[in-house]
Write a structure and sequence with these properties.
- The chain contains six helices and eight strands.
- It has about 220 residues and is α/β, with parallel strands linked by helices.
- The protein has a single domain (about 10-220), classed as P-loop containing nucleotide triphosphate hydrolases (Rossmann fold).
- Strands 1, 2, 3, 4, 5, 6, 7 and 8 form an eight-stranded mixed sheet that branches.
- Strand 7 (about 150-155), helix 5 and strand 8 form a beta-alpha-beta unit.
- The model has no long low-confidence stretch (mean pLDDT about 95).
- It binds guanosine-5'-triphosphate (GTP) and magnesium ion (MG).
- Magnesium ion (MG) binds next to helix 1.
Length: about 220
């Protein structure tokens, strides 16, 4: 029987954060055909009835650049496949976006979704002061599980006029910085993801250099 080969994504990004922070929305902004396992909410949350993730979100995008120094574009994988010839000669990296449920009692789902994660987007609703405690709990859960892998805190919903600033969100959580975006806006969602991908790329280069150094050292 032939060996089963799994698709080797270049980077796997785990998208976490509290209930209704905007994780599913951000993933669908970047990949409109992302798969989401959700259910209708029984009760309104902050005056709105919507959906909540009970399983996961799975989005597939390609980061395409003409040169490594460029920020480039984030294109849904299906679009890239259909227009591949347009990107001839560009550098392409496949990204898996894996969203998890924000409801605290779904910790067991978040725990099962962490395999092979390269980097984390932690999404916080900048206008939802009531969820600061949950956001801190999820941040603590995430950093305890992943150690010091690259993590970007996103101060989401900056389009709302009751949104706190990214600096305020960072101070709520005790982190050095947060990036302010609206996850409904493609350009902003893209910039937040690329910022994380650049960190991942820098880390990958450092570990390549380190292993080259140790190869050299061991051959002396
Ligand atoms: N104003 C505004 N609303 C947003 C933004 N992003 C998401 N929302 C709204 O926030 C609500 C929750 O969005 P979701 O993307 O489902 O949030 P989630 O983090 O996946 O939520 P759970 O799966 O329940 O943890 C929805 O009503 C969205 O339309 C944003 O950038 N601005
Ligand atoms: Mg969701």
């Amino acid at each position: 029987m032939p060996a089963v080969t799994l698709k080797p994504y270049d980077y796997k990004v785990y998208v976490t954060g509290p209930f209704q922070a905007g994780k599913t929305t951000l993933i669908h902004t970047l990949d409109p055909k992302a798969i989401s396992i959700e259910r209708e909410m029984r009760e309104e949350y902050r005056g709105e009835k919507g959906t909540t993730t009970t399983g996961f979100d799975l989005g597939r995008v390609i980061w395409v650049r003409k040169e490594t120094s460029h920020d480039g574009l984030i294109v849904p994988k299906y679009e890239y496949e259909a227009e591949k010839s347009e990107y001839d000669g560009w550098i392409a990296r496949e990204i898996e976006l894996r969203g998890v449920p924000g409801q605290l009692h779904f910790k067991f789902v978040r725990d099962t979704m962490r395999a092979n994660t390269d980097g984390v987007l932690m999404i916080v609703d900048s206008s939802d002061y009531g969820k600061i405690g949950d956001a801190s709990a999820i941040l603590a859960e995430t950093t305890a599980a992943f150690g010091d892998i690259p993590l970007e805190v996103i101060a989401n919903k900056q389009d709302r006029n009751d949104a706190a600033t990214p600096e305020e969100v960072a101070s709520w959580l005790g982190v050095a910085a947060a990036t302010g975006i609206s996850g409904k806006d493609h350009e902003m969602a893209k910039d937040a993801l690329v910022r994380l991908l650049r960190k991942l790329e820098a880390d990958a280069m450092t570990s390549e250099e380190q292993s080259e150094e140790s190869m050299k050292a061991s051959s002396i």
